[in-house]
Design goal:
With 352 residues, the protein is α/β, with parallel strands linked by helices. It contains 11 helices and 12 strands. The strands form 2 sheets. It has a 10-stranded mixed β-sheet, sandwiched between helices. The protein has a two-stranded antiparallel ribbon with strand order 6-7. Bound molecules: 3-isopropylmalic acid and manganese (II) ion. 3-isopropylmalic acid binds at residues 86, 90-91, 247, 279.
Length: 352
């Protein structure tokens, strides 16, 4: 029997509540499809930071390395200054575990949840491959004359040939494997960012033409991309982009698929430890009320199963989520589901 050790970081706010439901569904899937999941919990997050003064203990990254996957609830605490936990936990793990891909599917499960007029599930089904280790997120840059009237702040976008190529290669392979419309769109800003996206664009066509003749290469500026997400989402199959643009367009993507209640993502290191998370935040005001939507966390678990190779179980979880969203959930927002957090988890688990 296949057996997987999974690290679980419930984290802050509603993170632990939604994670509990994800674990419930994952255990049910493991029972049904005949594999074992051994969950090991870690208490990283705002509460621990406030208690100990450190965002992550130094041993954390090495401890997590022995797991093929981490399931993360949410990071963000109202009493901790913005940036401390994001940088100290989330970004640190993404960087040190070399999770160089952030994979964010944008898929509409029911027409009722789409804010766009006349768009159906078959129109909203694309995936964003976001570079996850470079760009504006490296922390490169600094201040000169900070705090004076002459101060200068520089924040640099780092784009290495190696980092860009491995991201593009993953995106091409993913597009081929997905085999939907076999189209990969590079989302950039070649008309203004003439160094960074020049490198991206050259590497994109080089790799595409040389190694992926069956994949159609397309290009869109990031501003136009946001326009088309709203106007013609059906044009997209797989989109590849840098870290910052990927961050921005995937929030828009999340809204197009029905909101943060349903949007999930995976931080992937195909050779190491990957980390799966609902992409909404810790929603502190709903903490402990049993009203937050756990579907995004359940979908993160579904992506994890798929990534681990338990593809039949992953497909079953997705079908269960689709059934429950169509038949049981009134709205996807917190407090509007017509069901509690734990009822949604129960329904998905039963529906497997
Ligand atoms: C996300 C988040 C993070 C990011 C923040 C919390 C650092 O917005 O996962 O998209 O910018 O990547
Ligand atoms: Mn974001």
């Amino acid at each position: 029997m296949n057996s997987y050790d999974i690290a679980v970081i419930g984290g802050d706010g509603t993170g632990p509540e939604v994670t509990r439901e994800a674990l419930k569904v994952l255990q049910a899937a493991a029972g049904k499809f005949g594999f074992r999941l051994n969950f090991v919990e870690f208490d990283f997050g705002g509460a621990r930071y406030l208690r100990t003064g450190e965002a992550l203990p130094d041993s954390a990254v090495d401890e997590l390395r022995r797991f093929p996957a981490v399931l993360l609830g949410a990071i963000g605490h109202p009493e901790v200054k913005p940036g401390v936990l994001e940088k100290g936990i989330l970004l640190r793990l993404r960087f040190e575990l070399e999770q160089y891909i952030n994979l964010r599917p944008v898929k509409l499960y029911d027409e009722r949840f789409c804010p766009l007029k006349d768009k159906r599930p078959e129109d909203v089904d694309f995936v964003v491959v976001r570079e996850n280790n470079e760009g504006l997120y490296t922390g490169s840059g600094g201040f000169v004359f900070k705090g004076t009237p002459h101060e200068v702040a520089i924040q640099e976008s780092v784009n290495t040939r190696r980092g860009v190529e491995r991201c593009l290669r993953f995106a091409f392979e993913y597009t081929r494997k997905r085999n939907r419309r076999n189209t990969l769109t590079l989302c950039g800003k070649t008309n203004v960012l003439t160094y960074a996206f020049d490198l991206w664009e050259r590497a994109f066509y080089e790799i595409g033409e040389r190694d992926f003749p069956g994949i159609k290469c397309d290009y869109a500026h990031v501003d136009a991309t946001t326009m088309w997400f709203v106007k013609n989402p059906e044009w997209f199959d797989v989109i590849v982009t840098d870290n910052m643009f990927g961050d921005i367009i995937t929030d828009l993507g999340a809204m197009v698929q029905g909101g943060m209640g349903i949007a999930a993502g995976g931080n992937l290191n195909p050779e190491g430890t990957s980390m799966f998370e609902p992409i909404g935040g810790s929603a502190p005001k709903y903490t402990g009320q049993n009203v937050i939507n756990p579907l995004a966390a359940i979908c993160a678990g579904q992506m994890m199963l798929d990534f681990l190779g338990e593809t039949a179980a992953a497909a079953a979880v997705e079908q269960a989520v689709i059934r429950v969203t169509r038949e049981n959930v009134k709205e996807l927002g917190a407090g509007k589901m017509g069901l509690s957090t734990s009822q949604v988890g129960d329904l998905v688990a039963q529906s497997l």
